[in-house]
Amino acid sequence: MLKGELKVFSGTSHPELAAEICSYLKKPLGKASIFKYSNDNTFVSVNENIRDADVFIIQTSCAPVNDNLMELLIFIDACNRASAGRITAVVPNYPYARSDKKDQPRVPITARLVSELLTVAGADRVITIDLHAPQIQGFFSIPLDHLTARHIVAKYFKKKGTSNKVVISPDAGGVDTVEKLANLLDLPYAIVDKRRLGNEDTVEARGIIGDVKGKDAIIFDDEISTGGSLQKVVSILKEQEAKDIYACCTHPVLSGPAIDRIKKMPLKELVVTNSMPIPQKKRLPNLTILSLGSLLAETIKRVHHGESISALFK
Description:
- The protein is α/β, with parallel strands linked by helices.
- The chain has 2 domains: 6-148 and 293-313, Rossmann fold, CATH 3.40.50; 150-290, Rossmann fold.
- 30% of the residues lie in helices and 26% in strands.
- The strands form 3 sheets. A 7-stranded mixed sheet has the order 10-9-8-11-12-13-14, sandwiched between helices. The protein has a 5-stranded parallel sheet with strand order 1-4-5-6-7, sandwiched between helices.
- It starts with 5 loop residues before the first strand and ends in a 9-residue tail after the last helix.
- The mean pLDDT is 94.
């Protein structure tokens, strides 16, 4: 059932993606003013009537993460106080997704805290893509649509050809997602035996479960951050005599030494999505960016009309 006029607004984190979504929907981007005062406080003003409207706010998590999160919360509050009929936060890359459990003494579960902040701010629904841990869905007391980019990745590799390839899970935690991607491509999959060392972005890769010798390898993960984990996985694949290596992820964080590390890796191609903006200086010659615009736009349209989201992935 329709919830009032469909309105799409954008925060400052990824206006290019918001413009792409609006182009697909054939809707103008909503008018809003966003800026910081001299005291570093964020200000958001909605510059059009949204009373009883079905409002969607596009704001992904990327640096500066805290600023973008706070901006989203303020935007939601502004829409709530402007009597929007329903407010949906469209957050392609969910902030603090790695902090999803209490795995050490006296540490927070920040992914849960973010879910509560979004709810208290006034969000009625959240749309996100490829959470680091699917269990984060359980942190929400409001509806959450958890989308995946693996069908977009599968479509891309089907066009390239899947002969003599194997899909690689960089750790045991990603097996379920990688198995589903492998099924879409009708390919076998293998698992890297890897463990993370403490709170640092350092990992130890100890071996591979599965056959990669003489095959092209497609590594798939939810995100690439500093590239340390990818570096270890690529190294062990080469040790096991894999041929061409493709690295894929949904969220190209590419922080710290990531670009320098990736430049030194024997990667045939780095395939990512535009869940977050990628600065020009990080766009390597072997980088391919797949768009999430049509997926998010179609999801927004279906949410607005009360239609099935899962049908998108059949």
